[in-house]
Write a structure and sequence with these properties.
CATH topology: Arc Repressor Mutant, subunit A
Radius of gyration: 14 Å
Strand content: under 5%
Low-confidence stretches: none
Helix content: 55-70%
Structural class: mainly alpha
Distance between the termini: 47 Å
Shape: elongated
């Protein structure tokens, strides 16, 4: 059991669903920032079967998304 109440967890889940509907390509980190919690909290909720997170980004995907990589193209 985490340090969040059931009501707070419901608010977190609502915010995550809202952000995914606006931005389906969002990373786990962006979802966590928008929901106001850490990625570990979202992973715990996923392990409990309450939500489905997007897959982790690979190192290559992370590097390709930086502004430095975009200048080289």
């Amino acid at each position: 059991m985490g340090r969040y109440t059931e009501k707070e967890e419901e608010v977190i889940l609502e915010r995550v669903k809202e952000y995914i509907s606006k931005n389906p390509e969002a990373s786990r980190g962006k979802l966590a920032i928008y929901a106001g919690v850490s990625v570990m909290v979202l992973e715990r909720l996923e392990n409990e079967g309450r939500m489905k997170l997007p897959q982790k980004l690979t190192t290559k995907q992370i590097r390709a998304s930086t502004p430095w990589a975009k200048k080289r193209i």
